[in-house]
Amino acid sequence: MLRKILVTLVLSVGLMAGEVSLAVAANLGDVIEVLKKEFMQTHPDTKVSSVLGSSGKLSAQIIAGAPYDVFLSANMKFPENLYNDGIATNKPIVYASGALAMMSVKGLDLSRGITIVNDAKAEKISLANPKTAPYGTATVEALKNAGVYNKTEPKLVYAESISQAVQFATTAADIGFVNKSAFYSDKMKAFVEGKDWVAVDTKLYKPIAQGIVLLKKAEKNAEAKAFYDFILSAKAQKIFKDFGYVVNE
Question: Among 69, 146, 160, 225, which has the highest number of CB atoms less than 10 A from its own CB?
């Protein structure tokens, strides 16, 4: 009898704990860990798992039935499509806006601005794939608006996601277009603004508004709703701001 009671208690605790599965845009690779840790302060028994990737690929996985509860995209387009298709429970809300940066570990003079991509020494220019990664889309837009895209296109090297674009920019590429928020992480703080990287003129591309949606799978998942609400809270917004994102205040 006692054993039966203990088993029931264990099962009850397991059910109470709850799980939340996140599909997370690659540019959030560092900040999502801080956000998860902060969420756990008030939800210590909740297991929060996250998968990083380009927003386009994550969206395709969700459409194919991947069991995610919450989708944090790098744009509004993909979550809007999910909502319109009845896969998300709510219209996407902007949780933060990102910005583009240009970096070089090859000693190129970044003070010249985006036109540096036409330099003869800039033989390989990395960016995230514009077909699936919103930061890649913004990069192409910036290059076109600056009037340098046609000459630059043969030099472009496409990464699967913005996190891979950062990897390319810190290794093989002569110039890399990355998310500005990357430089707020501990592993990237060694790169100096004005020397190793500069922000891309925001007039050259549309604001990178990033949207969040609660997915159909999570309709009855109170913990997933709690995490969704947390992302929009003042505490989470401060964390985003600390990582270089623009937030509503």
Answer: 69
State the pairing for strand pair 70-72/19-25: parallel
Residue range(s) defining the domain that contains residue 181: 99-204
Helix, strand or coil for residue 60? Answer: helix
Q: In which order are the strands placed within the sheet that holds 156-159?
A: 156-159, 125-128, 175-179, 100-103, 197-199
Decide: residue 48, CB within 10 A, 0-12 exposed, 13-18 middle, 19+ buried: buried
One-letter amino acid at 54 equals S
User: Which residues does 45 contact at the CB level (< 8 Å), separation at least 6?
Assistant: 13, 16, 17, 18
Which distant-in-sequence residues (6+ apart) come within 8 Å of 19 by Cβ?
Answer: 46, 47, 48, 49, 223
- Regarding whether 167 and 147 lie in a shared domain, the answer is yes
- pLDDT tens for the 249 residues of the chain, in order: 444 433 333 333 334 468 999 999 999 999 999 999 999 999 999 999 999 999 999 999 999 999 999 999 999 999 999 999 999 999 999 999 999 999 999 999 999 999 999 999 999 999 999 999 999 999 999 999 999 999 999 999 999 999 999 999 999 999 999 999 999 988 898 999 999 999 999 999 999 999 999 999 999 999 999 999 999 999 999 999 999 999 976
Structural domains counted in the chain: 2
Q: Three-state SS for 6? A: helix
Q: Which two tokens stand for residue 216?
A: 């159909």
90: in domain: yes
Question: Which CATH number characterizes residue 71's domain?
Answer: 3.40.190.10
